[in-house]
């Protein structure tokens, strides 16, 4: 589902696929007590998603050489608080959870988002897309991307996940214009100012029923 081509070479990642409609709490119950308190009052589905994504994050951290038992807590707007020297991102959707981490010596920020490989619900596209982005969806569909609108949504979500750690500011859907290429790459041009970078690079893949988009800002 995920492979190294989606990320910078220094990154490490982990993912799991789950059975649709089932919510195992095994990974949640194995979390650090401080992590469990973050969703203690949530329903089982939410706690299962949270536990699975955190399990992926801890596994990726251990693969990067960090202590996989250190709790990953939440900062402003729910941003994960990674160990010093690490940037990372998590995602979860029905049937899929994943996390990616990278050392700050090579990567300034990284984002990851996954969605089902299905068209967006009716009327959602108009609320997230800029005119030029809508125009390019026809090109992607001609290239065989049947869920091009969902890919755009996924790319925008992953862009925000790279943007926020750099700025501590919200980025609305119209705050970036995403140029998605059929070759599995995209560029998110930032339209708000001030911005730490003029654009954020991304990569995407559709496989096994899911759309995955990653973004990252590397040091020059």
Automatic annotation (TrEMBL):
<feature type="binding site">
    <location>
        <position position="46"/>
    </location>
    <ligand>
        <name>CoA</name>
    </ligand>
</feature>
<feature type="binding site">
    <location>
        <position position="161"/>
    </location>
    <ligand>
        <name>CoA</name>
    </ligand>
</feature>
<keyword id="KW-0460">Magnesium</keyword>
<dbReference type="InterPro" id="IPR037143">
    <property type="entry name" value="4-PPantetheinyl_Trfase_dom_sf"/>
</dbReference>
<feature type="binding site">
    <location>
        <position position="113"/>
    </location>
    <ligand>
        <name>Mg(2+)</name>
    </ligand>
</feature>
<keyword id="KW-0808">Transferase</keyword>
<dbReference type="GO" id="GO:0009366">
    <property type="term" value="C:enterobactin synthetase complex"/>
</dbReference>
<dbReference type="GO" id="GO:0000287">
    <property type="term" value="F:magnesium ion binding"/>
</dbReference>
<feature type="binding site">
    <location>
        <begin position="91"/>
        <end position="92"/>
    </location>
    <ligand>
        <name>CoA</name>
    </ligand>
</feature>
<feature type="binding site">
    <location>
        <position position="115"/>
    </location>
    <ligand>
        <name>Mg(2+)</name>
    </ligand>
</feature>
<dbReference type="Pfam" id="PF17837">
    <property type="entry name" value="4PPT_N"/>
</dbReference>
<protein>
    <submittedName>
        <fullName>4'-phosphopantetheinyl transferase</fullName>
    </submittedName>
</protein>
<feature type="domain" description="4'-phosphopantetheinyl transferase">
    <location>
        <begin position="109"/>
        <end position="211"/>
    </location>
</feature>
<feature type="binding site">
    <location>
        <position position="171"/>
    </location>
    <ligand>
        <name>CoA</name>
    </ligand>
</feature>
<dbReference type="GO" id="GO:0008897">
    <property type="term" value="F:holo-[acyl-carrier-protein] synthase activity"/>
</dbReference>
<feature type="binding site">
    <location>
        <position position="113"/>
    </location>
    <ligand>
        <name>CoA</name>
    </ligand>
</feature>
<feature type="binding site">
    <location>
        <position position="157"/>
    </location>
    <ligand>
        <name>CoA</name>
    </ligand>
</feature>
<dbReference type="Pfam" id="PF01648">
    <property type="entry name" value="ACPS"/>
</dbReference>
<feature type="binding site">
    <location>
        <position position="114"/>
    </location>
    <ligand>
        <name>Mg(2+)</name>
    </ligand>
</feature>
<keyword id="KW-0479">Metal-binding</keyword>
<feature type="binding site">
    <location>
        <position position="54"/>
    </location>
    <ligand>
        <name>CoA</name>
    </ligand>
</feature>
<feature type="domain" description="4'-phosphopantetheinyl transferase N-terminal">
    <location>
        <begin position="35"/>
        <end position="102"/>
    </location>
</feature>
<dbReference type="InterPro" id="IPR003542">
    <property type="entry name" value="Enbac_synth_compD-like"/>
</dbReference>
<dbReference type="InterPro" id="IPR041354">
    <property type="entry name" value="4PPT_N"/>
</dbReference>
<dbReference type="InterPro" id="IPR008278">
    <property type="entry name" value="4-PPantetheinyl_Trfase_dom"/>
</dbReference>
<dbReference type="GO" id="GO:0009239">
    <property type="term" value="P:enterobactin biosynthetic process"/>
</dbReference>
<dbReference type="GO" id="GO:0005886">
    <property type="term" value="C:plasma membrane"/>
</dbReference>
